[in-house]
Protein 1
Amino acid sequence: MLKLRNLERRFESGKGFEYVLRQINLEIADGEFLTIMGPSGAGKTTLLNILGMFDGDFEGEYHFLDRPVHQCKPQERAKLGRENIGFVFQQYHLLDDLTVQENLAIPLSYRKYKASETAALVADTLDRFQIVGKKNLFPNQLSGGQQQLVGVARAIIARPKLILADEPTGNLHSDQGREIMRLFQRLNAEGTTIIQVTHSEENAGYGHRIVRLRDGWIQSDEVCAPAA
């Protein structure tokens, strides 16, 4: 599904440049469930933002669905991401002036669904996440955990080819967190590729593979047996 070749990311600093990612070489096959781990400052979220097409200011090569992302213009890259990737943000990124159901409909607008199809998918997702009673509320009327559930629901509603999740259960209580991870596991079994960033070894256990970063470098890349 995607391939990185000698990918690097640097930011300007008082001393010139500071590298956050160094010589990242990584291949992720269609249908994998990959976890990225590492201490704070290791480059995990930066890598996820590049994979999600939010950050195009990198060096090296990034191929996604046989498209050379490193050669794409910003508008082309953004369109490729919107049409194929669902993103679960650590800080929710819900639109404050839209209701829950309106937030859920946003990814569908990029994929040219008919109004009736959009309404049906939103209704089904509200029911699936047991948030029907919240559909007309705005994000500031929800708890942090409720906002995170809406964020996860928004990421999967359009059935993207790839889901990227940055600490997807960080604001949920343990039962909600396990349910979200089991949902990811089911989606993965149905063919969705998933890449998550997490500090949780328990959450990492739901995937097939763990890539560990340290100081911007890949420290290890190991296969693991998914949790039952």
Protein 2
Amino acid sequence: MKNQYFGDINDYRKYGILRCLSESGAFSIGVCWMLTPNDGRTDGNLTRYLSAPAKWRHRDPGLFDDLRQCVMLAGQREVGLAPRLELIPGAVYFHSEVPEGRVTRVGYMSRCLEALAPSELLFFDPDNGIEVKSSPYGSKGSRKYIYWRELQAAFQEGHSLLVYQHYPRQDRRAFRGRVSEEIRTRFWPAGLFALSTSSVVYFLIAQPRHQERAREAVASIQDRWTPEVSSLNLLDA
């Protein structure tokens, strides 16, 4: 995650998903932003939706108004605004930038899991998504990814997981299938859902004790966000 993306259309959907997951105490949420420095690119300028409240505001009026106030009226774009505005009610946040290098990365994730330990569901928000072979753990560029070893450590601590994944330039159905099979093999989750948008998919990996709440939260996301967010039960696929 980069501060320059705060409040864009993908953020609106992302916070909307997280708010559904936390709604009415469904999950206590811990957020690991996996922050990386701004790079000056313009692909975070997807904010025109904030000028079209008739089309977009009804999805989540409170969230829309807060993001519009920050981005359009105040010109503020930083993830530190999320806790101040309680964009995700009751959430706990880990804000540190992701380091490069194996030793520093291990320390980073250890501090993250300690800070977010009370949370039932952890959200990981890397720039790109889950690891790829071209960026080994600790290498230059590795800060853009979350690694399987890190996700498994969090899951073994008893957390359910929500993981950001930017769609690569591949067949999307086939891609979701490959990731789903990897998750099944590594985690044996009680629940596994893909929450798909126009450019991003979120993988929801549920612990056995969270299975029913995860299903209910996904149904809430469907009710509020279809067709902007589509859901797929990957254990039934």
Protein 3
Amino acid sequence: MKVRLSILAPIKALVLTLGLGLMSEQALAGSGSALTRLSDRDDLLGWEAVGRLDLAGKGFCTGTLIAPELVLTAAHCVFDKATGQVLLPDSVTFHAGLRDGESIAERKALQIAVPPEYIPSQRVTMENVRRDVALLRLAAPIVSSDADPFILYSGPLTANEVSVASYGKGRSEAISRQRSCQVLSVSNDLMVFDCDVTFGSSGAPVFARYGNRGRIVSVISGMAQVNGQKVALGMSLPSVVAALKAQMRRAPVAAPDRAIRRIRVGSGGSALGAKFVKP
């Protein structure tokens, strides 16, 4: 089975034909629910941690708080397509729970971490999709009473049903939630879904059921065509996110009004001291 895969950039879509293994025709028929626009604050309750990332005036993606200062998104979102370099952090703004011009909270990015293995100038490959993850540290935390961060899912999936919350082309002013879509395939940390995504949905969180609140099992990297059916691509998160957190700890950055404080163990002292985008 051949898959037409594309991560969509502002200027040009990158396309590569790849084999993804077997998917049944029944699975490809899809059983996802319709998108629901979270139009008022009652609808948005519990989803405030999902927000729109505005990218240096060059488009937007979807991001999600996974800690008061950390936003999870797709790596290709944070690269300048003209230069191939990571965007300056303060040119990226996270709008938590954005709805019709109003945000629960708004923060500039302070630090951006992407996997060193991710190659933005490379044509789309399965390995790049697996590494298409970025973490942003915000210049100031968003308190949990305003937006309660989501937790990453770990361990094997016990069901194929997932949900997704995203912004996108034609629906950029409010979160659209798809309550139910399906995991079609999982192989070597690559995940395929029948979820309804589009430009701007890059970085959107895919949730697996866990108790009374979903946990993030993947983020959207791009779209593919399988036998003419549109599917969404994502990746397994725990190991790559752990590596990005370690990368940030190795190269910490302080906000202009804060200093980095390192504790010297035993001394009691301290020392002061780093692709869907809307066309």
Protein 4
Amino acid sequence: MRSLLKRIANPASSAFRITFFDPNDTDGPRLGPHSGSLHINNVSQHNGLITISGTAIESLLELKQKTLLEYAPLPRRTHNAAIYKDGIIYNDTGSNRLVIADRKNRIKQSFDVPEYEPSTLSNAHLPNDHARPGFARGLCLYGDDVVIGGSSPSTVSAYSLSAGRRVSSINISRDIRNCIHGLEVWPG
């Protein structure tokens, strides 16, 4: 059995509870077109604290025992939110940028993801709710000064915190349907 974040009866409610997940139990998660309405996209740990975030959850949630608490507020449409030093770090996908903020979500630093001329992109005709250029997603740290982020179309960028700017970027494809989602520095 695994723990599962589950909304209380009203799907529009912002209240959460922790339950044990049993796929054969009738009290399991809702199925159907709105069953993924929280869009949980990141679960991480920091010094033993487990955090959860999703594009429809306006908080970075911390799991303590069997309780979910707000660790920090977030804007809607964020990806990869996590604890960072004395605050938080996340991809503000709605604003096409990577953000470092304090626990009240007061922005300390932000970095715009790379933009490309529309004429150089493929599948740029798709609706923005399907795919779009600038979609910020994918995030990892490299040492104490560099943050690596992904974006659409298939771009990986390195940002220097001390310099306050993007220091490197590589584009793999100009097809806006392709976005870098998961990033991790491989131990070497």
